[in-house]
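>> received
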Amino acid sequence: MALRQEGRTAVAVTRALADAADLSADVSRLLGELEAPQATPARQLAAMAAFDRRLFERAGDVITLVREAGRTEPELAAFYREVRADADGVRVRMFSSWPAGVFRSGQDVRSATDVYAALCTIDVYDVLTAETLARELLA
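>> returned
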């Protein structure tokens, strides 16, 4: 019983951290940019990527911690999957609202969502900022 309670407490704390991370990345700014009258698909895509960057800058360690803890804690693994699925759902809704012909040939909403999810991750962010940036810019 005590272990189950500890697990629920850990998930509750993790949810609170995730909510705080979303707020620190400025969800209201993202929504404003996505819904702006001048919001083209390119601008909306840039707004989503900028939100992810802010999220990774401010809460990348939390994201990594939750993912890694999920390897041994089923409740945290489920929470991580739920958050990822929610984010994919937002992308699907956004991409589905775009006019026909906006995607490159061979791309559709599902494949665009998959490409976005693969490129905009904490792991890619870490590699690009910690390794690639120095390698590409410094002698």
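>> The chain has a mean pLDDT of 87.
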